[in-house]
Specification:
It is built from 10 helices and 12 strands. By secondary structure, it is α/β, with parallel strands linked by helices. Strands 4-3-5-12-6 form a 5-stranded mixed beta sheet. Strands 9-8-10-7-11 form a 5-stranded mixed beta sheet, sandwiched between helices. Strands 1-2 form a two-stranded antiparallel ribbon. β8, α7 and β9 form a beta-alpha-beta unit. It is globular.
């Protein structure tokens, strides 16, 4: 592989190659980079010509990395992440500039957004960018400053700090509880429709939360159920009287207070997982991340004490 001069076009081509190699699709890479598919293909072809090596084997509806392509991807995946974070850190040593955070969708909607104005008002020079996702962040290749995970806190190579625990219990509409005679009768769940968050945490099974709760109280669950890719959708379905959802306390407090949801039996269980703030180890003391961690810890202090 010939060593090229690192011109702007070469660097652009390397970044384009990395995204295409991760997605194994020129079309999906084009969507991420906001380019046309032909532009992505052209950039990678120019890169191959410059390096005088083939990076992809192009087959109908399929891409395959060559051995050279695999080697280049491995090097770029690490170094592009280092470069992006170093540049951003140099440009934003103060509490200003872009601040990118990845958060699970329902946590963002039900917990973070009602509090976010306080953070933005406190640090007005920061341009806060929130992105929701259930998947874990690849901090080597993605330009996120930090992320909120619901998990076990074990993320190799990353810094993680516990924010708060979580409890959960079944919830439904009052009408559904009456119709199915659920009040104080958990055994009646066997005739109900369960509403599942299909992705309650990274790599979870669709009924993991329900099974964990059922084992704690030795309750038999029905086979029938509906799945949703976001917890808030399962809770909204419960509000509409479709079935019974497993509600996390931080998501359902307001709904219970307003009467939109009820807990037919007082049988909560402490979740085996917690909320963590996660970032690259070398970035934990950056002013922006430290400010966000301190603010989040202050916001969760009352809940942790409770």
């Amino acid at each position: 592989m010939r060593l090229p001069k690192l011109t702007g076009s070469v660097l652009s081509g390397l970044h384009c190659f990395l995204i295409a190699a991760e997605q194994m699709s020129f079309t999906r890479a084009a969507e991420i980079l906001c380019l046309t598919q032909s532009a992505v293909s052209h950039k990678i072809k120019n890169l191959e010509d410059t390096l005088e090596v083939k990076l992809f084997i192009r087959q109908p509806r399929k891409l395959i990395l060559t051995e050279e392509g695999k080697r280049l991807q491995a090097v770029l995946a690490q170094n592009f992440g280092d470069i992006a974070h170093e540049i951003r850190d140099l440009k934003t040593l103060e509490l200003s500039g872009d601040f990118n955070v990845a958060v699970p969708p329902t946590f963002a909607q039900s917990w973070l957004l009602p509090r976010l104005k306080r953070f933005i008002d406190k640090y007005p020079a920061l341009r806060f960018h929130l992105r929701t996702r259930n998947e874990l962040v690849d901090f080597q290749t993605e330009s996120f400053d930090c992320a909120i995970y619901f998990g076990n806190g074990k993320y190799p190579g990353l810094y993680s700090e516990k924010l708060m625990g979580e409890s959960m219990l079944p919830v439904c509409s009052h009408e559904y509880a009456i119709t199915h005679e659920l009040y104080d009768c958990p055994e009646k769940l066997s005739s109900c429709l369960l509403l599942h968050d299909a992705a309650p945490w990274a790599r979870a099974g669709r009924n993991d939360e329900w099974q964990y709760w059922a084992q704690r109280y030795d309750v038999v669950l029905p086979e029938a159920g509906c799945t949703f890719d976001r917890a808030d959708l399962a809770l909204q379905a419960a509000e509409q009287g479709i079935g019974v959802a497993m509600g996390r306390n931080s998501f359902i407090v307001e709904k219970l207070e307003s009467g939109r949801l009820v807990t037919p039996f007082a049988m909560p269980v402490q979740s085996p997982l917690n909320y963590y703030i996660v970032c690259r180890r070398e970035m934990v003391m950056s002013p922006r991340i430290k400010a966000f961690i301190d603010w989040m810890k202050a916001e969760t202090e009352d809940m942790n004490e409770a």
